[in-house]
Amino acid sequence: MATVGTSEANLVKLPPPQTGKLSHFSIELIFEDVLNEARSKCGNPKAALKVFLECKSENGEWEKVYSGLSKSFIHTGLQSNKSYSYRVKVDSSSIKSDWSAITTIKTLAAPFTGDDLHQAIRRGNIEKVKEILASGDVHPDVQDEKDFSALVVAGLQEKFDIMELLVQHGADVNRKDASGKTPLIHAASRDLLETVKWLCAHGAEAKMLDKSGMAAIHHAVDGGFVKVVEWMLDNSDKYGFDIEQIETTSGMTPLNRCSNMTPDAKAYELAASLQLRGANMSSKAYNNFTPLLNAIIRRKPKLVEFFLARGADIYEKNENGQTPYEIAQSVGNAQILRAFEDKIQQLSLLPKPKRKATPNQEVEVS
To answer: At which residues are the ANK repeats (predicted)?
Structure first.
């Protein structure tokens, strides 16, 4: 067996450590080649050899990161996507080595997160979206802090090229969030007609209900989004929207919900669109209120006038036996009462009422 001296000139030169598993925060260094070479040099295959591993710091100095008898070491707590330089030597009674050649190893880039995807979508950075989806690090339905899926976020900003990418990578166009809302419901409740069209063309289910029991059409009605509702109903044969679909909380059809929830400025126009497309004016909610009764209770004079002009039944009683006219009298809205009086006069059910305009003068209601 050759004797190895300990002077610097006689120190054995060993190979650098091998690279093992990498992550964005760790590097595994394997010493098997180092140890095999050292044992072959000292002639003792069973020699206990102590390994010393150093890493170059940011200021250029070598720092010890490991010493021991193991065949490998995992250096953790590192920065992502950064290069680290290492050298190794061994020391025992049988052999002493010089420092090995330097090996430089780079940590992996940190995996993408859901936040990365949502930020890229909001910025409209389609190339970044492509990169993130291609990495496989992030599910295409990942949610943000509001529980919006990536498809919802893209849809709210009408970024259809990004929506196409998300669907190609497996995004679910009918995925429900914690409140049960689908991307279609989110779009319909925000008057985003083009997004509604895109989602329907890509398989969105028209009649799905959220946890409040409402479908996309009910949300569009509540917002007074006339164009969205009209498009839904004009395309009902193709996509399955239902003008008489009942939401399950109050049992209201779109027309009844229009009377109850739609802002006054849009209620008349929306009711006209619904009625023109065949909405049933006699449909009753769970409280047995028709659209006319809801319009009275909600004090919407123009809507009451609309229903009366379109032949709504003024005799139909509610569960308490009250007619619409009796309810109108209890509500006490002057404009609504005039609408009923004019309708009753038109039907010649009562003598034409008179109202005082000035003292000692009476005028007839026209």
So the answer is: 146-178, 179-211, 287-319
